[in-house]
Amino acid sequence: MKVARNTPQQLILANKPWLIGCALAAFIVLFVGAGLMVATEEPLPGFLFALFGGGIGAACFVAFVRRVQVIFDRDSNLISIRTRSVYAYTQDTYPLPQLRKAVLETAISSANNGNASTMYRPSLDIGGTLHPMVTSYTSTGGPARLVNAINKWHQTAPLDSAPDQA
User: Fold this and answer.
1) Given this model, what pLDDT does residue 163 score?
2) Which strands sit side by side in the sheet containing 99-110, from one edge to the other?
């Protein structure tokens, strides 16, 4: 997830999973193509290979490729978390004044060899309840950068340029 727009009135964070989407599409084409090539010699095993390999790739595409956009808008006084997948579009909105801060959630994952790694995801503390912006955790520094960007934007109120009215 990256900062797509950062102005005093609006902060937009977006995740567009182009790399995983293209990789899974190539996986599907590769398996279906190989299966169809085999099907010219041996129809049943070839079609099963194409169906099984293409089906697994398609299932992974549906499960893992989802676009997320988080919009903090001072004009409308709302936070919108939009998620679009192959089959669904969801939008959750929250009042911006109830945003306390962005939080870095952590999870410890352990391997069979005893090594543990810390994973992170950005979440929003809205009215005392944590709302994750994404479902998955990562070990990269991206979530920390997002949390810092949100908190910095949230603490910086726009300048009021309108004259005082009596």
Assistant:
1) 47
2) 99-110, 116-126, 129-132
- What is the residue type of 4? A
Q: What is the DSSP string of 97-162?
A: GGEEEEEEEEEEEE-TTS-EEEEEEEEEEETTEEEESSS--BSSSHHHHHHHHHHHHHHSPPP--S
DSSP 96: G
Amino acid letter, 155: Q
Residue-level length of the chain: 166
Q: Which of 120, 117, 116 is nearest to 136 (CA)?
A: 120
> CA distances (Å), 165 to each of 161, 162, in order?
12, 9
Query: pLDDT tens, 118-158?
Result: 889 999 999 889 999 988 888 888 899 999 999 999 998 66
